[in-house]
Amino acid sequence: MTNHDDLLEKFDDILSDDDAASTVPSQPTPTLDDVITSLRKQEDVRTSVSLLHGLSGLISADMTTLQPVLDELPANYRRNLMRDLIKFSELNIEMDYRTLGIVGISDPDPGVREAAIELLWEDESLEVMNLLVAVVRHDVEPEVRAAAATGLGRYILLGELGDLPEDETGAAQTAVVAMLQDPYEFVAAQRRALEAIANCSHPIVPTAIDEAYHGTNHEMRVSAVYAMGRSYDSRWHDIVLEEVDSTDPELCYEAARAAGELELVEAVPKLGHLVLDHDREIVEVAVWSLGEIGGKEAVRILEALSEKAEEEEDEGLIDAVDDALGNATLADNMFGDLDVDDFM
After folding, report:
1. Which range marks the domain in which residue 291 is found?
2. How many domains in the chain?
3. Largest alpha-carbon pair distance within the chain?
């Protein structure tokens, strides 16, 4: 295991312990001068908790001083910096790297721009939405455009739910639809556009999903199945049920997740078989979907799996099953006579 992984593992251990976690934010926050000194030395951010803390909570005025220092750093250092900020923010929710994320969107290095977009994964401001729209329309790198399209998906959903003004989030829809319909756009970007637009009732959604699913490109087909679940549209039930049995791991995984999002009771027996799959990601998504679907048989399967996980001392699976059981209902469903022993 590398030093990087060691550090993140330690972060995870600290933040999973309530007493220890409470001591992390209480560490003295480095001054901006301290941060600049560390950056100029190209201090390894992966071994510097102090630097990770010092880069949190920056404001625009700070960037006037900090930006020239960042511009002098090698591209590969800036990329590592952004990626480590992402990981640390996932482990420590009190970290605020919004300013760095916004600045990073205009970085000359595409890897930094892509990571900066991911760093803003929780931001719901229209300011960031408009920046992502500009990236989708103008960035020269397909991977960066793809990341921006994924980011716009949350704004499209927020507009659909009424949590943001629909007349404002319409710009996100327009940008993503244009990307999806552009015959010269790269598949890497188009598939993320399809996934993003599936979050809303835009009239293009059913046709776009159908064309992607029945097309010849495998990646678009996988994204189409993902989009079926995100659309919450019952017209896709039969396809999702069929793809849960797919021998293609990507299609199977996305179909299993879509079954949960669509709350397909009919998928419960299929998901019951998937929880025995050797592919850990497929097992975990099947467990999640059983929790989303709920019902008596889903709960029985999860309880049986919980016993199996405890016997094997599989802590990760125990936690996943417990979370799923917390979401599941105890209502009877059409498979009331199904014997869970068939699956175990």
Report:
1. 258-344
2. 1
3. 69
